[in-house]
Amino acid sequence: MSFLTSSFLTSKHRKIIYLLIVLCISIYTPKIVHAAEAGRFVEHVYHDNAGDHKYVVFLPNEYTPQKKFPVILFLHGAGERGTDGKRQLTVGLGDALKQRKSSFPFIVVFPQCEKRNNRILTAWSAGTPDGQRALSILADVEQQYSVDKTREILTGWSMGGYGAWSLAEAQPKRFRALVVLSSGSFIKKPAKLKQLPIWVFHGAHDTIVRPQQSQKIINALKQAGGKPRYSVYANGQHDINRAVYNNQKLIEWMLAPQADGLENLAAALPPSQNKLNTINDSEPFVPAMEISQAASLRLGNHTLEAASYAIPEMMDVNSLQGNIGNISDTTVASGRTFSINFTGITYQANVQRVYLKALADGNFRIQMAVSNAHMMISRTYVRGRHRSAVAGPIDIQIGIREPVWLSVDVKPTVVNRKIKLQPMSTWFEIQRGNWYVSAPRGVSTRGLFMTSERVSASLVRGLYGSKSRIESEVMGAVPSIVAELESRLDFRKLGTLSSSFWPLPVYHPRLRVWPESVSVNAEGITLGLGVTVAAFDYLHAPKAVQQITLPKISASTFSHQKGLSIGVQPQVLHSITALLVDSHVAHINVLDLPEKTFGDFANPQLLANLIPDLKKQGNDIEISAELLLSKPLDLAMPPKAEKKEDTAQLALSAPEVTIALSIHKKGEAEWKPYANIQFRLKQQAAVQLLKPSFTKRAVRMNWLGNPSIETRFRFAKGSKGQPKNVNTKELQQLFIAGWNHWTKNSSTDNTPVADFAFGNVSQRLKSIGWEESLLSLSLGNPLLRISNRSKEPFSYATKSPLSDWGSPYTLKPGEHHDFEVPYAMMYRRQTPTGIELYQLPAGSHSEFRVPSPGGSPALFKASEPGE
User: Fold this and answer.
1) Cα torsion angle, 755, 757, 762, 767, sign
2) At residue 836, what are phi and psi to the nearest 5 degrees?
3) Which of 12, 388, 507, 769 has most Cβ atoms within 10 angstroms of its Cβ?
4) What is the pLDDT of residues 467-495, one digit of tens each?
5) What would the pLDDT profile of 129-156 be if each residue is shown by its tens digit?
6) Which domains are assigned to the chain?
7) Are 155 and 179 in contact (CB under 8 A)?
8) By CB neighbour count within 10 A (0-12 exposed, 13-18 middle, 19+ buried), where does 285 fall?
9) Residue 12 clears pLDDT 60, i.e. is over it
10) What is the dihedral of CA 287, 292, 293, 297, to 10 degrees?
């Protein structure tokens, strides 16, 4: 007899025991997941004494409760804090997962840090509410899903990286591996982590958390006996998330982590992932401000010619094929009148070459070399009195010997913030002997003397005699071709390029550029551009989009330029930073700044000597000091700025930067506003164009001289302190020390600027400076270089996309040849064993040398610094 059916238990007792068993099973048995949840993000809510907390779980495509899966706990960065439960997916691992959902083999847990006003670097730390909740949410997931608890991976980016180090130090034996990106650490006992497999990633150009922070903890771990992996992306900045989390080597390592101490496993970011600092293109773009007359773009004829090489490959084949309406005609044969109807007419063609040129009459010319144009007439009906015929398909081939040029003069206008190209005149002529009309494929006839041979010959003669009609039909396809070119006019990259000159290390704006005016002269096209600025916090975007109109830019500013030039009004900085101030996000605790000298403003002992009233607050007070941008920044050209091709001098003014002090006694949760120290700052700087290597370009902000600073101190409302007793002069010196330390370090930071690509054509940054009142960039064709690093001369030939092979060049040892071309160039060299044939990318550098293992010289990609 079983215990549950024993007579010792009443029916009521048995029901209670059954309920307890069911409850235990429901708690400790993994959740049975619907098949639809596998391979996607699943939203959850975690409940505790503080309330409800939203989080997200990603389930692998192959998820099943019958199998145990490894799990990753991801801690996000500062920009994704909140309570919406979704923002933590927009940057980092969540963003990377969207590109490989079908193949990612881990369950991933995405908690969200909810405290937005606390310190950044300690937000996820062990013992904090958000840090503890992250671990509780992980435990919650492990109860609901089939998780292998022996394979927990902890990873974090930026702010999340600091938290990952802290949680790992607090529970060093819990996690199977630790992966940290773009972060530093406050761990005190690195020896606790010496057995843990660790992989750290950092961008060499990170100005938010400098790579020295990662190097410091790596050194400490090694000294403690650990073997962490460390990878530095030579051209990476702070936002290296996509490159790292999409790295197949990392995914394989997390499946079987090892502490092997390997380094330099990620030397360079792919070009598509070499993005500017902290520009998050995964968040929704919610417009907050529109700035009219923000910038000017000049497309000179040299740039238009360069773009011409890219257009044929970028054109949609559907724009070069289509249908033509039925054509009706009449003819007289043997004294009888016949009606002829050509039906089911289709066409398709290849554009072999395009040439663009601006004209003095305000239009610009598009010339297209059309080859292998094929027109097919599916069926032809011939009708006369008591006689008729039906002919099968007739083929018309145009451009059988050489391309036929289709020339269109268009007038550009702006309609609804888009460029519209209005055809003004079209010219197309088929040269004699450069086209062919086939006989119909089958003819059926009815009536006396209507033979298939006579009908076929008459139709062919008639079509040859209708050349002008065929030319007219070809020109009728021009509107669809022009519409295709319109669709390729994309200004989005200009917003990213403009962000290169953002003077702050954080809060890079997201911009969308749109045309608002266009003018043409004989040297090129000038576009007036407006800018839409996204809300800095899309979850709290302003209800109405703010409209700003700046002074009109003269169309003559760049009218002499023949290349690609972009000019930005300096007032744009004022407008965008005004939006930043109004968004209430431009603040940071001084202890979270990369420059630790600002931390003196949070030192109670130091400040008590400068603010005597602090001594009255007791010996057990703590100070929170936040740096705030209180008023927008201003930018202008200095009155006596020197004109240099590689430098743009700037006069930067910050009318009000505030350090807000709050105090509380140790152990208290709430902070009480105490005082504000306001600084008015002016300093000159120079944006310098750098050439780190033959193929790379970068910009750097150099601060010139000493800042001019005015300081004002005032106590918070309700405080009884006396401002006259405050040593304002010494407070100002503290600020100057922090400012100078930051500007000194930032003067060593280079921001890479990638080539501006249009299809397979590239334009490279050539100069920076002022053009009248505009801060301007000029770009042009990059140089393609071939160097001879061998001890013997060699000969080679080259070919452009539209030319035949040219005569051979001979390159002597130690010398190089430069080709200023915007396109990829073919290279050919005869060798004893065959032909060496390569396509050399635009702006690349190749070298002829002996391979490292030895052997005969050959052409290789030249190595770049950091590779």
Assistant:
1) negative
2) -90, 115
3) 769
4) 998 888 888 888 888 887 788 777 766 66
5) 999 999 999 999 999 999 999 999 999 9
6) 1-30 (no CATH), 39-273 (3.40.50.1820), 316-487 (3.15.10), 586-749 (3.15.10), 782-861 (2.60.40.2890)
7) yes
8) middle
9) no
10) 40
